[in-house]
Amino acid sequence: MRIALLVSDDPHQDYLVALLDAAFDVCGVLVEPGRAQKDRLWRRRRYVDWMSRRYHGIRRSLNGHSRIRVRSFTPLASSAHLYERVEVDWINSKHAISTMDRWSPDIAILCGTNYVRSRVLLAAGRAFNIHGGCLPEYKGNHGVFFALAQGRYDLIGASIHEVSAQLDGGALVEVVRPPMYPGDDDEMLYCRADQLAMLRLVELLRRIERGDDVPALPQVEIGSVFRHRDRTPWVEARAWLRLRREPLPFVPVARVATSIYDSLGDQVLADPLIEYSRLESG
């Protein structure tokens, strides 16, 4: 089974590449760097969105979130790097399309790119996206943060879904909810949820490789789409105050909701691949 990845260049995406490269035949990795995403916003005169991306980059550097993500994923992201790596300035460019046509993968895995048009994925048999947030409630960007900000601690997690024409709207394969500890912030929870989703993806891909069915359920039409621009300093301050008033519950085990089980009912996940521990800042 040949797998192609369409990713950005954050540490957790490097970890995903290394994880799949160790387990499967990765024929290529198409990279749309975060820098290229911001440059495209500027060229298209989407200045508010460009400023939002700049703000979040500065915020993450100042509050230590960038260091948390690097420490959470970089030590795990070692890879033999036997695949072809192609960097593009836009994930829907002609170069990206021709590269995917040449690779002709059985499966495409998406994580962290701009919206991918159907023409790019035409050569792939099936495409999945790892989304940082619980679907269908939290689409778009900063799904873990907005669940935290709204006090929906039961909806903190990450999702694996099929790619469709609708942003984060494809059929849902699995939703994972990470362990939570008092004192966690959204970055710690995001890293823990994403790592769990990536490990679950490996298991799902192994099932596909064996010829087993991996069902997906259509999403219910609920929830909201959040953009980078929606996470303003004012919203951040309100989220911090809510977390002070309503601390996170202690949930020491990961949970998974999947179409394989009872109508997306929660199940206790016992994953031998990783020991979940608290990610401490500093």
Structure, described:
By secondary structure, the chain is of the alpha/beta class. The protein has two domains: 1-124, no CATH class; 130-282, Rossmann fold (3-Layer(aba) Sandwich), CATH 3.40.50.12230. It is built from eight helices and eleven strands. It has helices at residues 11-23, 34-43, 47-63, 65-73, 94-103, 143-149, 186-210, 233-245, and strands at 2-7, 25-31, 84-87, 107-111, 126-131, 138-140, 158-162, 172-177, 224-226, 255-258, 266-268. The protein has a nine-stranded mixed sheet, sandwiched between helices. It is globular and about 55 Å long.
Notable traits:
single chain; 282 residues; alpha/beta; Rossmann fold; 2 domains; two-stranded parallel sheet; 8 helices; 37% helix; globular
Question: Order of strands across the biggest sheet?
Answer: 3-2-1-4-5-7-8-10-11
> On the 0-100 scale, what is the average pLDDT?
88
Overall domain count = 2
CATH fold title of the largest domain: Rossmann fold
What characterizes the major β-sheet?
9 strands, mixed
Distance between the termini: 41 Å
Number of helices: 8
What order do the helices and strands follow? Answer: EHEHHHEHEEEHEEHEHEE
Number of strands: 11
Low-confidence stretches are: 259-282
The geometry reads as globular
Secondary-structure blueprint:
Blueprint: E1 2-7, H1 11-23, E2 25-31, H2 34-43, H3 47-63, H4 65-73, E3 84-87, H5 94-103, E4 107-111, E5 126-131, E6 138-140, H6 143-149, E7 158-162, E8 172-177, H7 186-210, E9 224-226, H8 233-245, E10 255-258, E11 266-268
Parallel strand pairs: 1-2, 1-4, 2-3, 4-5, 6-9
Antiparallel strand pairs: 5-7, 7-8, 8-10, 10-11
Helix pairs in contact: 1-4, 1-7, 2-3, 4-7, 6-8
